[in-house]
Write a structure and sequence with these properties.
Removal of H(2)O(2), oxidation of toxic reductants, biosynthesis and degradation of lignin, suberization, auxin catabolism, response to environmental stresses such as wounding, pathogen attack and oxidative stress. By secondary structure, this protein is mostly helical. It contains 14 helices and two strands; from the N terminus they run ααααααααβααβαααα.
Length: 319
């Protein structure tokens, strides 16, 4: 009987989560803020024109938001006397960026329709537009999220996959968020744009054996074997073939043992996801299609809707 009650409770939680996700709709702001999508697009276009890498940075910001408490803009909250945010968690400190871009877009949105659009929805739209502006796919973003008043540095430290993760650990981390192995591989393809810090790939280029010798030697030139110095912040492109073009070059790199992070190369190392990685390396259209679908799925992780949460006036602090 106790087992049945537990199963019923789990089913109830899942139903509530699915119900919340079902409330999201691409037309949510059509009446209340009709210029929203054009404002976000213009803000992202300016940011990406100034620095193409910013498209990748905003995409990563969205991922780090959704994997901690759901897609609720918790990652945007600053530390304060009454709140410990997520910005200084291990996976985020000296690494996440783009907060000022979201602030600027939020200011434009507030000027057009004050108190209407959540920071969580602005981030979801900005991530989509960043991908598309770098020649990637586009998709209809379900909207209607609200912003949390809380954050969890502990959850950011425990829920976000590490660059040293194994394939099994990655599959498990994504499964815990309702994302399957294909979603994992597709979303990992976000690494077709952007850069990584030496501190994230040092172990890979000095210790891993499933890496192209020439590739490892080149990366060692900017990443000394000892950590703790300024070189920890030295950057290398995640996809050296086309670092500011959203395509399937990342998967071709991984198949050729040119993955920059250990976790990248784990997607093609004799495990359960090798077949999907190989498919995307051959078929860029399949990757683009599956990436768009996986982004919608990730954007549905535990959103706050209805009367839950709030619409922040300032993305950095609760109202």
């Amino acid at each position: 009987m106790a087992a049945l009650r537990r199963a019923a409770a789990v089913a109830c939680v899942l139903a509530l989560a699915l119900g919340a996700a079902a409330q999201l709709t691409p037309t949510f702001y059509d009446g209340s803020c009709p210029r929203l999508q054009s404002i976000v697009r213009a803000g992202m276009a300016a940011a990406v024109q100034q620095e193409p890498r910013m498209g990748a940075s905003i995409l990563r910001l969205f991922f780090h938001d959704c994997f901690v408490q759901g897609c609720d803009a918790s990652v945007l909250l600053d530390d304060s006397a009454t709140l410990t945010g997520e910005k200084n968690a291990g996976p985020n400190a000296n690494s996440l960026r783009g907060y000022e871009v979201i602030d600027a877009i939020k200011s434009q949105v507030e000027a057009a329709c004050p108190g209407v659009v959540s920071c969580a929805d602005i981030l979801a739209l900005a991530a989509r537009d960043g991908v598309n502006l770098l020649s990637g796919p586009t998709w209809a973003v379900p909207l209607g999220r609200r912003d949390t008043r809380t954050a969890s540095q502990a959850a950011a430290n425990s829920n976000l996959p590490s660059p040293s993760s194994s394939a099994a650990a990655l599959v498990s981390a994504f499964a815990s968020k309702g994302l399957d192995a294909r979603d994992l591989v597709a979303l990992s393809g976000a690494h077709t744009v952007g850069s990584a810090r030496c501190a994230s790939f040092r172990s890979r280029v000095y210790n891993d054996t499933n890496i192209s010798a020439g590739f490892a030697a080149k990366r060692r030139q900017i990443c000394p074997p000892q950590g703790g110095g300024a070189a920890d912040g030295n950057l290398a492109p995640l996809d050296a073939l086309s670092p500011v073009r959203f395509d399937n070059g990342y998967f071709r790199n991984v198949v050729a043992q040119f993955g920059l992070l250990h976790s990248d190369q784990e997607l093609f190392g004799g495990g359960q996801v090798d077949g999907v990685t190989a498919q995307y390396a051959r078929n860029g259209a399949a990757f683009a299609r599956d990436f768009a679908a996986a982004m919608v799925k990730m954007g549905n992780i535990s959103p706050l809707t209805g009367s839950s949460g709030e619409v922040r006036a300032n993305c950095r602090k609760p109202n």
